[in-house]
Design a protein that fits this description.
This protein has 421 residues and is mainly β. It has three domains: 131 residues, Immunoglobulin-like (Sandwich); 106 residues, Immunoglobulin-like; 126 residues, Sandwich (Immunoglobulin-like).
């Protein structure tokens, strides 16, 4: 049975490769894998877990980029760096204007997995480095290529900030469309006192995200009022977000002993399988101290986590009636926060549940189930997780600036806000 599941997973992944390569062009802002072989792609700022992928435009700040290739033998990988505008389209800057060095670097650092049943090779590099310096602020997309191939197998996204403006954020469950019910409304102000700016209304471009979700991100919002050295953004329908529910959690730390939310472990040659307890459709708010969708790689001994953590085929099941008019997907950083065919769940008509199995590296994970209506590219948690105003959510506000005559968007402000009732 387990062998059939693995075959189906690999077949499904192969059949969707073409779709992935096309859809990735529309998802240039997310750190993600585009190949079923490439897993656990990460871009971490200054060696800190769980912080925004954002560094200052100054000495000593860096981004660590890493990924695993489930083909254990060494492959030659290269990467290119693209400077992007606020909407993550390619900026008009020449390569020499935003970086030093050659824009086709070989990834020299790699280590094979040690003592794992699933063989893989771990690749990693840091930016900036001895060969590459990044010269301007804004968004950066790093595309990773297998040698000789034209389409990237993965990408890592991060930003460089030159902080010139301040951002103050407030979030309330008393919204313009409901009162402590299913939504949260964000308001914020941009403070540019002491920063010379000719036309703040036209030059400043805020971009807002909830829990790193690009499918519901907000841009193109105009200030509702203006004070001295300050733009105010409040009482705007675009800044009302469905509240969702807390993320579900599990840990896969040990090959033999079930850990948090794991029903049972099993070795089915050649790999380990972790079957989670069957989840239920949520109809109430459930408090939990989640990490807003993140994962953290570690093994039971917490030793050499990058190369000694195995991959387990992890089996998810969501018990609920089948929903018509769309599909249910697994969601969170474990699926790159992307609506992707590889993460679409199958419905088991006998057991009346949605199911999926994915190879995941040992560690602690957050996840949810998201529903996407046919023909749409924005997901909703309403039928699977519910929307409840009490939910703790993480909001990011980026502020970009395009001065008159400039050819790119500078990143001049950022703020993170955790809403807790």
């Amino acid at each position: 049975m387990k062998h059939n599941i693995i075959v189906n997973i690999l077949l499904k992944a192969s059949l969707t490769l073409i779709v992935i390569f096309y859809t990735m062009l529309c998802e240039a802002q997310q750190t993600a894998s585009f190949s079923p072989r490439i897993k656990t792609v990460k871009a971490e700022a200054n060696g800190e877990w769980g912080v925004p992928p954002l560094i200052l435009q100054s000495r000593g700040q860096y981004v660590d980029i890493s990924f695993d290739d489930l083909q254990a033998s060494y492959e030659r990988y290269t990467y290119t760096i693209t400077h992007c505008n606020a909407d993550w389209t390619k900026s008009d800057l020449l390569v020499s204007e935003y970086m030093t060095g050659f824009n086709d670097q070989h990834i020299e650092d790699y280590e094979p997995a040690i003592g794992t049943e699933m063989d893989y090779c771990h690749y990693f590099f840091t930016l900036p480095n001895d060969n590459t310096k990044l010269l301007v602020s804004g968004n950066y997309k790093v595309e990773i290529f297998e040698d000789g191939e034209d389409a990237p197998v993965a990408q890592a996204c991060f930003s460089i900030i030159e902080p010139h403006v301040g951002v103050d954020i407030n979030v309330s469950a008393n919204t313009d469309i409901d009162y402590f019910a299913q939504h949260q409304q964000l308001s914020f102000s941009i403070n540019y006192s002491g920063y010379a700016i000719s036309n703040p209304i036209s030059e400043l471009k805020p971009v807002i995200m909830q829990n790193r979700r690009w499918d519901t991100h907000v841009e193109g919002v105009n200030p509702s009022s203006m004070r001295v050295n300050q733009l105010i953004y409040d009482h705007q329908r675009k800044l009302i977000f469905p509240a969702g529910n807390e993320f579900r959690r599990f840990e896969i730390l040990d090959e033999y002993v079930p850990t948090m939310r794991v029903d049972h472990m099993e070795f089915s040659d050649p790999y380990y399988h972790a079957t989670l307890f069957t989840d239920e459709q949520r109809i109430n708010y459930l408090y939990d101290q989640d990490q807003n969708g993140r994962f953290y790689v570690r093994n039971g001994d917490n030793v050499n986590n990058d190369t000694e953590s195995d991959y387990f085929y992890t089996h998810f099941a969501l018990s609920m009636p089948k929903i018509g008019g769309g599909e249910v997907y697994l969601w969170g950083d474990l699926t790159d926060n992307r609506i992707d065919e590889r993460y679409k769940m199958d419905y088991n008509l006998i057991d009346h549940q949605y199911e999926i199995a994915l190879p995941l590296k040992q560690g602690s994970y957050n996840y949810q189930y998201i529903f996407v209506h046919d023909g749409e590219d924005i997901g909703t948690f309403a039928p699977t997780e519910g929307n409840f105003h009490q939910t703790e959510n993480e909001y990011w506000v980026y502020v970009y600036q395009r001065p008159f005559g400039s050819r790119y968007d500078k990143l001049v402000g950022f703020q993170k806000y955790n809403y807790k009732q």
